[in-house]
């Protein structure tokens, strides 16, 4: 099992989640975060920290977000570890209202 970051995080990247992770499992891309499934210990403490409810246990990922399970695994070895909260992207509050934004993901 692992926890997974889904579409809501794209272009928001509030990073509230990273401060609480006891094993530094978050990886940072240009406009999205992922969780490294090899490091995540399934503690769930990051879930309530996310203001846009982007984080799910893999077994609870909604049907229309299932591809993000593989995407977290694929991108986590390529991106750097992020361990501290930093400023959200400048237009994060606007993008937080957008539901469909896969096409915006930068790798
Ligand atoms: S708190 Fe949510 S939106 Fe912010 S970086 Fe973490 S998963 Fe993404
Ligand atoms: S579930 Fe726990 S270990 Fe996994 S990413 Fe969230 S805070 Fe880190």
UniProtKB/TrEMBL annotation:
Entry cofactors: [4Fe-4S] cluster; [3Fe-4S] cluster
Keyword Acetylation in record: no
The 4Fe-4S ferredoxin-type domain, residue ranges: 1-30, 31-60
Domain of life (superkingdom): Bacteria
Keywords for the protein's UniProt record, in alphabetical order: 3Fe-4S, 4Fe-4S, Electron transport, Iron, Iron-sulfur, Metal-binding, Repeat, Transport
Ranges in coiled-coil conformation: none
InterPro entries in alphabetical order: 4Fe4S_Fe-S-bd, 4Fe4S_Fe_S_CS, 7Fe_ferredoxin, Fd_C, FdxA, RnfB_subfamily
NADP listed as a keyword: no
NCBIfam families, alphabetized: FdxA_Protbact (NF045490)
Protein's job: Ferredoxins are iron-sulfur proteins that transfer electrons in a wide variety of metabolic reactions.
UniProt name for this protein: Ferredoxin
